[in-house]
Amino acid sequence: MSRLLRHPRLHLLLRLLLGAVFVYASVDKIASPAAFAKIVYQWQVIGPVPSNLVAVTLPWIEIVAGLLLIAGVWKRESSLVIALLLVVFIVAAVSVMARGIDVENCGCVSVAKAEAPSGWPPAWMKGVGWFLVSRNLALLAASLVLVLVTPGRQGSPSDTDTDRQRAASLSGFTPASGAEG
Prior knowledge:
The protein is built from seven helices and no strands.
């Protein structure tokens, strides 16, 4: 499992996925800060003035962190910012659910008003609920891998090969020279 989490391609995939999600999520909010402010206020976590401040700044933080991840610049730092945002989102969602507040549009990726009921997405995927919390937990796990796990080098010997070489050199046996004695 450790080797998988350290694989450079996994880190690249996680970076591109997280970066794309956060860039996509920010675009509509940047274009419509007033509509996003109404959604933030609807969560009833902060008052109207802080809601406006969040509506204006949060999407820019999301887009910058997402673009940095996609570009591969400040990977750990931008992953940490995204992880912290996700923790705040999860706590706020659980708070909304515990207080029984009905939020139709979480404002996660779109500030569009609710459309006429349709078959897709299903009701359990809409608004603030366990699907949103689960999705954010999965994104948090991905960001924590990028923050906490140092990727291995492409083409370097595996950990077990390195351990075998180290043990062999300590015992006086190297595969190239055979047994010494």
